[in-house]
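Morning, I've got a small favour to ask if you have a moment. I'm working through a protein record and want to make sense of it properly. The fold is given in discrete form, as structure tokens running alongside the sequence. Can you walk me through what the tokens say about the fold? Thanks so much in advance, here it is:
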Amino acid sequence: MFHRILSFLVILLTLVDGCILLGVFDVAPFSEYIAPKISWYVTVVCLQIPILYYIVYRSYIVPIEKLKQGIARFYTEIDSEPNLEPNSWSKGMNDVITFFKKSLQILKVFKSELRDGRKLRSEVEIASEIQKQTLSQDEDAIPGLNLAVGICSASEVGGDSLDVIEGQDGNFYLYVGDVTGHGVASGFVMMMVNALVSAFSTKFVSGAEILAATNSILKPRIKQNMMMTAVMLRWDSKNQKMYYTGAGHEFILIYKAKEKKVYKIKTGGLAIGMMKNITRSLKEQQIAFERGDLIILYTDGITEARYRSEQNGMLFGVDRITESVMKLASPNPETVFRQLTIDLSAFMGYNHVQYDDITLAVVGFSSDSSEAIIQTNISQKIDPSNITEWNWGNTKK
């Protein structure tokens, strides 16, 4: 209130000064009264100037300087802040100070979140790289088998697993796994499983024993709601026999060349991490596997892919996988992988959203071990005109 009265008096005196300078009071009776006191008015004018400057300084100059300091500190990341309290003598300036103070506070929060986000992204990238390193880097072929495999995560760190491991006595293992959810937590569970399976494959022969031992180590070390479904193939290259072990995973699909028909095999078993001991639920069984036959392993990222990415749209399902195989006159791992990619891409359509990690492995029997190969880059061989938008490794996250 005081500064308003002072401002009013300064303005009034300024008006009087102006009148004197303009000669408004040079007529009687004003001239007779003012003339003797001209020196006093000069003194008052001299006092007005510093008072007026002080008012302007307190009302505008000081607040503006503090605002400049606050903005400068924001840009230079200085932790301490100037006192940006709305204590100006001008209400309008106080409103401006309040506005900028709140704006700087909001920007500071955004800046902190951005910095944390970059740090988190860096950690996610590191986790993603570690995850890739835990997967087998050996793409040497499995004697007697042709493979076409692919994996596409819905995020930087995926929860799906696909690995080929060479065991003892001519045994080779190929398994597909799916950890609940996806992201960093699921990715680390997957990495633990990969490491354990690789270690136990040198100790045990049966896939059931390998998965049971993996579960016994993993279960006490993960959250209660974390688990991993899996299906493991064991190829006895010496005797050319195929075995499978299921741990609560999707159906195994097997194409019988002689019958030209696709069969569904229920994998059975309990998921890894569901119980402390799942030994009794896991059984390794032999699959009748002959020349020209195919085995198709996959995760629910394929079967639960949504039509045109609609949240409530129909799912791709197992039957469409079968249809993709039956479209081909002479199916082999590469042609099945390619056809299924084309059909899945068309089903999801343009501007799709990949809700889950997607994994596919197609295994074919080859009597000539010299012809055995493992293919991981089939997507690069697919004509872009045959797909809509989704492709292995070329999908929106």
